């Protein structure tokens, strides 16, 4: 396995160098155009070679690559535009912040001017009180004078002329005083009219000031709200910038993935082209091998026909041999008969020679017998010559048989070699088919990878669309905020103009007051008593009106704050629902990724089990190979033994057939009994022949058993051949290296998925943090609402207590000075000695 791993690492190293040489780190337009031109040339070459399917697939890949390149360029342009828009929006936000700061400064200056105006109004009120006191003193003097006149008028007329004179003088003085009183009344009436006008003007100015204060409160609330909105917009802007950065990082990551996929697609296309060329070469080689196979099959058929012919000829020759052997046997029998007749004739000759002297008449017969004997001897010689010829023929036939057997053996060896070549070619064809299947599987995997990359690209396009929509929404929000800021600027400018007008009117009123001071001082004595009561009632009314107006403004302000809090609550609810939906989507994505991880882990375990099984098979095959290599050393000896046994078998078959024929046609069985008595030597020979026949039968049985053992050994030999062919070769190493590459690719994918899961978890954590911040903000707003409610309850209680204590304070402290000061909410919280009246006013007694 170490060797195999080293081979896999060695195979991966050139692949990486090939990738580095093939695709650069940055794909420029020139490189892409060169690729497109090369791809078009390859398509033309494929079409020229007649591979239209491959040309169409390659053209589709080229079109998809161009589309992906175009989409990548468009996405880069969009990201650049979005970055420009975000920078512009950040500039606008900064301008809005500057404008809001300026508005805050102007609001502070206006507040200081309003406080100065209130101080001036308080000073004018003190002056009016002094004038009223003077008028009251004048009224008291008039009443005293009226009392004196009535008292003097009630006296008797007995008073003297002095008294009449004095009375006339008093009457004159009374008339004069009446005239003065009328003038004073007239002046007082005019002064009252003027004071009424002034009071109306003051009330109008006060109402204007109150309206301005209301507007100021509203503007301050709106400014505070705008500030909050600006802060929320800044936070959203920061979140958008962070999301944009994350999206840009994701886009870079996906860009790198797309480049890697592009590299892999280019490499796979090159590999596919190489595989296709190899396939074409293999197909041509396969066709050639098929042609060779056809030729070999034709040759084998011819050889089979030749073998059949030779076997037929052998059978015919064997039959001829059998016939000749039968004839030879017949000649032997005739020769034996002739020998017997010769012996009989010799005996007869002996008898004739013995009786020659006795029988002379038989000389002629003897001569005839001699002639006949000569003829018989000639015939015997001829038969002997024919027997010798037959023996020579038998030897030739045996030689031909051996030669034919050798030829048959050679032909059988050749047939075996051709069968082995056939098996080798068939194995090669099977291997090529397996390679074809593997290449088709790789093609299918490449198509699946392309589909997966397309799906991921669509997902990223959707994410980009959502990001663009969110950025458009943020742009619209920024535009609305800018519009609201512009409106606030216009309103503040209008309010500043109105305040300027109010200041002018206040200055005019002060000038008129200064001009009327002299008149008011002269009339103040007469109007003092009446004005004191009026002043008390007016003060009470003003105080009560102020408290009511302050309560109303506070109520309106609190209502507005409530509405703002409700709106913020609704916005937070909407954001929370959006965050919950995003969290659900992220959880779904996480579940999908976990499922993909589980699948990858299961596949990884299956691959590990397959590798373990392959290791076990490799060890088993190695042990079998060792056994077979040991058995292969004895194959040559076994072949020689098989050849010798085949020769012996053929000889023994011939003998067995001859013996079977003799057994079927026994010769002179009825004469054996006679021979055992007459000729025991022949009988012994016959017994020996029978024993030999039995031995031949026994040997034929042993030969059949040996044939069976030979067949078993041949079967074992074929099985060993198959096992040797199935032994681990370079194909198994290639498969192992391929599995190792697939495992490394899977591990890389798993690492990428783990990194994506970590990124998603970080996003989820950041979103959880934002959710917690929003929840904390909600809790803070709720606490502020509770505080405002408590303050409102306290204000209502203070107003009630003030209303109950108001008349008593007015009666007891008629000469007390009440100064109403406009303060901010912060000073109201800090100063505990002042009593708040409502809408930020304080009363100092």
Automatic annotation (TrEMBL):
Chain segments annotated as coiled-coil in the UniProt record: 293-603
UniProt keywords, alphabetically: Coiled coil
Basic and acidic residues bias spans: 144-154
Domain Cilia- and flagella-associated protein 58 central coiled coil, residue spans: 336-630
GO cellular component terms, A-Z: cytoskeleton
Membrane-crossing residue ranges in chain numbering: none
Pfam families documented for this protein: CFAP58_CC (PF21771)
Positions of the UniProt region annotated as Disordered: 1-23, 144-163
Protein's UniProt name: Cilia- and flagella-associated protein 58 central coiled coil domain-containing protein
Lineage: Eukaryota, Metazoa, Ecdysozoa, Arthropoda, Hexapoda
């Amino acid at each position: 396995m170490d060797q195999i791993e080293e081979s896999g690492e060695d195979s991966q190293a050139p692949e990486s160098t090939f990738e580095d040489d093939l695709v650069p780190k940055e794909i420029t337009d020139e490189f892409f155009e060169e690729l497109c031109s090369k791809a078009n040339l390859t398509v033309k070459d494929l079409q020229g070679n007649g591979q239209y399917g491959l040309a169409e697939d390659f053209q589709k890949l080229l079109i998809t690559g161009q589309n992906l390149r175009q989409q990548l360029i468009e996405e880069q342009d969009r990201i650049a535009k979005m970055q420009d828009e975000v920078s512009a929006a950040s500039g606008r936000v900064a301008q809005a912040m500057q404008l809001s700061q300026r508005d805050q400064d102007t609001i502070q200056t206006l507040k200081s001017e309003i406080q100065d105006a209130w101080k001036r109004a308080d000073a004018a009120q003190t002056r009016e009180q002094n004038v009223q006191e003077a008028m009251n003193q004048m009224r008291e003097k008039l009443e005293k004078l009226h009392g004196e006149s009535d008292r003097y008028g009630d006296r008797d007329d007995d008073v003297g002329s002095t008294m009449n004179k004095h009375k006339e003088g008093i009457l004159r003085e009374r008339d004069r005083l009446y005239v003065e009183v009328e003038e004073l009344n007239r002046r007082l009436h005019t002064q009252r009219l003027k004071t009424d006008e002034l009071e109306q003007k003051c009330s109008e100015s006060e109402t204007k000031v109150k309206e301005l204060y209301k507007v100021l409160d509203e503007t301050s609330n709106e400014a505070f709200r705008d500030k909050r909105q600006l802060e929320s917009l800044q936070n959203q802007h920061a979140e958008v910038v962070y999301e944009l950065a994350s999206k840009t990082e994701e886009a870079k990551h996906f860009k790198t993935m797309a480049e890697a996929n592009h590299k892999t697609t280019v490499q796979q296309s090159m590999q596919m082209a190489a595989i296709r060329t190899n396939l074409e070469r293999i197909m041509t080689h396969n066709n050639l091998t098929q042609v060779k196979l056809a030729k070999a099959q034709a040759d084998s058929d011819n050889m089979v026909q030749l073998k059949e012919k030779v076997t037929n000829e052998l059978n015919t020759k064997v039959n001829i041999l059998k016939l000749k052997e039968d004839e030879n046997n017949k000649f032997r029998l005739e020769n034996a008969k002739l020998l017997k007749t010769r012996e009989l004739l010799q005996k007869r000759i002996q008898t004739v020679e013995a009786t020659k002297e006795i029988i002379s008449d038989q000389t002629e017969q003897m001569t005839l017998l001699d002639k006949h004997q000569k003829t018989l001897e000639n015939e015997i010689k001829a038969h002997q010559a024919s027997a010798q010829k037959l023996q020579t023929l038998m030897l030739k036939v045996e030689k031909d048989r051996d030669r034919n057997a050798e030829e048959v053996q050679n032909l059988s060896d050749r047939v075996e070699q051709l069968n082995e070549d056939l098996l080798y070619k068939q194995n090669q064809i099977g291997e090529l088919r397996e390679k074809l299947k593997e290449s088709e599987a790789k093609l299918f995997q490449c198509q699946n990878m392309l589909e997966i990359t397309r799906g991921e690209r669509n997902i990223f396009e959707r994410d980009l669309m959502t990001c663009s929509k969110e950025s458009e929404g943020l742009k619209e929000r920024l535009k609305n905020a800018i519009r609201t800021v512009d409106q606030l600027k216009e309103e503040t400018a209008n309010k500043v103009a109105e305040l300027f007008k109010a200041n002018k009117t206040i200055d005019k009123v002060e000038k008129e007051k200064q001009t009327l001071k002299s008149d008011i001082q002269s009339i103040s004595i007469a109007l003092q008593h009446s004005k004191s009561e009026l002043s008390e009632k007016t003060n009470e009314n003003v105080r009560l009106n102020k408290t009511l107006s302050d309560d109303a403004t506070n109520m309106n302000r609190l209502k507005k704050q409530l509405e703002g809090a409700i709106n913020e609550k609704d916005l937070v609810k909407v954001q929370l629902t959006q965050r919950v939906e995003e969290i659900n989507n992220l959880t779904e994505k996480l579940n999908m990724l976990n499922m993909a991880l589980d699948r990858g882990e299961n596949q990884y375990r299956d691959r590990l089990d397959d590798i373990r099984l392959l290791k076990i098979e490799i060890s088993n095959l190695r042990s079998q190979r060792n056994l077979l290599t040991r058995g292969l050393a004895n194959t040559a000896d076994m072949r020689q033994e098989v050849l010798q046994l085949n020769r012996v078998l053929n000889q023994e078959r011939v003998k067995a057939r001859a013996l079977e024929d003799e057994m079927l046609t026994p010769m002179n069985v009825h004469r054996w009994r006679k021979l055992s008595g007459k000729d025991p030597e022949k009988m012994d020979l016959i017994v020996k022949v029978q024993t030999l026949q039995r031995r031949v039968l026994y040997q034929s049985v042993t030969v059949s058993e040996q044939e069976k053992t030979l067949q078993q050994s041949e079967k074992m030999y074929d099985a060993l051949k198959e096992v040797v062919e199935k032994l681990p070769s370079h194909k198994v190493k290639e498969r192992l290296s391929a599995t190792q590459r697939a495992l490394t690719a899977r591990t890389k994918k798993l690492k990428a998925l783990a990194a994506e899961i970590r990124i998603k978890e970080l996003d989820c954590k950041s979103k959880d943090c934002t959710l917690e911040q929003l929840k904390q903000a909600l809790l803070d707003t709720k606490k502020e609402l509770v505080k405002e409610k408590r303050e409102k309850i306290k204000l209502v209680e203070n107003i009630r207590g003030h209303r109950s204590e108001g008349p008593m304070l007015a009666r007891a402290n008629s000469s007390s000075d009440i100064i109403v000061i406009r303060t901010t909410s912060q000073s109201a919280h800090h100063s505990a000695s002042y009593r708040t009246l409502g809408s930020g006013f304080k009363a100092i007694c």
